[in-house]
């Protein structure tokens, strides 16, 4: 075999083989196109899975009855008292007078001439700070005011220490309980002369430590004291936030938060429409004519088209509470109709969305969970695509090997043809030369 095909005869062997192999590779190209299509479908199902998960997350705000127990609490003086209502609150109003706010217990020392030179107490003197029954002892005898402060702050006694400098020669150690209320008040004990020299005393403006607790009067009858200005265990479903004492009672009004419910329903509608948009885009392109996509679409539509049974309220259809399905399959919310439904039968509205086993959102959530679960519809479809990819990759590998053999065979055959043509050309040239000589001899 010659090393440069076509040199002997002028036959373009490489070009001929290249063109023949282009024809031979058409089945391979078709397989590679199919493989690319499968990769595209697999990616599309990844996007579809993500869209379903996002939609399911959007259902969380409304898929349970408790999610509809949304209340707002307003105050006649938000600078003095506010409240936050949870799902166990009750619609109504109550009067609250704030007599005093909870304070953090503070103790201050006698004035000291400096902060970093004068030793206070003697070596070995100790200070014990007890907060909420937990004593912590500090060996601070003979230390300066700054050193005592730093030692306390480095410990874990439930207080913080700071120095207040009134003048250049008057400095006081101030200890403050980290948490407010009488139960968190500090008790100080000393050994040696340390306690006398510091002379710590309560500096809060209270007659007794009990006055460190906040105090409110509810409905002019019930007196409530707590160690904090945030009270969540006095009135069911409410957390009271005390900000300032009041001269008289302020009114807290608890009502259903219509705006929040409407916003949650609108979020559901928007999420459903986003899912529909994704499904339509995939159905028009990557998953066109895909039976699994159509099956899931039909499954979700069937939930919305199946009227719940056994509800105890006034409503059975989404359209009755302002949510309608448009011609293109998307949803639309009429806020006015929704607000009317909230006002007329709130419990019935909540059941339409979230009744166990029957609520539209409850059933949608369950259906999507089934679709997304392991060995569900999407898992099954992805497994099928991956199986097809594996088969195609195997066929492509085998075909590529066979094509390499075909190309070798073509090169061998055409190289042989090239050699033969070269030899024929040489023979032809020799015969032509001999005939020419013979002709010349005859002419003489």
Describe the structure.
45% of the residues lie in helices and 19% in strands. It contains ten helices and 17 strands. The two termini are 45 Å apart. The mean pLDDT is 90.
Class inferred from helices and paired strands:
alpha+beta
Shape: elongated
Spatially, the strands of the biggest sheet line up as 1-15-3-11-12
Radius of gyration: 44 Å
Report the sheet with the most strands, covering strand number, pairing sense and barrel closure. 5 strands, antiparallel
Please provide the count of β strands: 17
The count of helical stretches stands at: 10
User: Termini separation (Å)?
Assistant: 45 Å
SSE pattern: HHEEEEEEHEEEHEEEEEEHHEEHHHH
Compute the average pLDDT. 90
Model regions low in confidence, pLDDT < 50 over at least 5 residues: none
Q: What is the percentage of strand-forming residues?
A: 15-25%
Bin the helical content: 40-55%
Summarize the structure in short:
This protein has ten helices and 17 strands. It has 444 residues and is of the alpha+beta class. The strands form five sheets. A five-stranded antiparallel beta sheet has the order 1-15-3-11-12, with no helix packed on it.
What is the fold's blueprint, element by element?
Layout lengths: L12 H12 L1 H34 L11 E5 L5 E5 L6 E9 L5 E3 L18 E5 L2 E5 L6 H10 L4 E9 L2 E8 L8 E5 L3 H5 L2 E2 L11 E5 L3 E5 L3 E2 L6 E5 L7 E7 L1 H27 L6 H15 L17 E3 L5 E3 L1 H10 L1 H9 L5 H13 L4 H67 L1
Antiparallel strand pairs: 1-15, 2-14, 3-11, 3-15, 4-8, 4-10, 5-6, 5-9, 7-8, 11-12, 13-14, 16-17
Helix pairs in contact: 1-10, 2-5, 2-9, 2-10, 6-9, 7-8
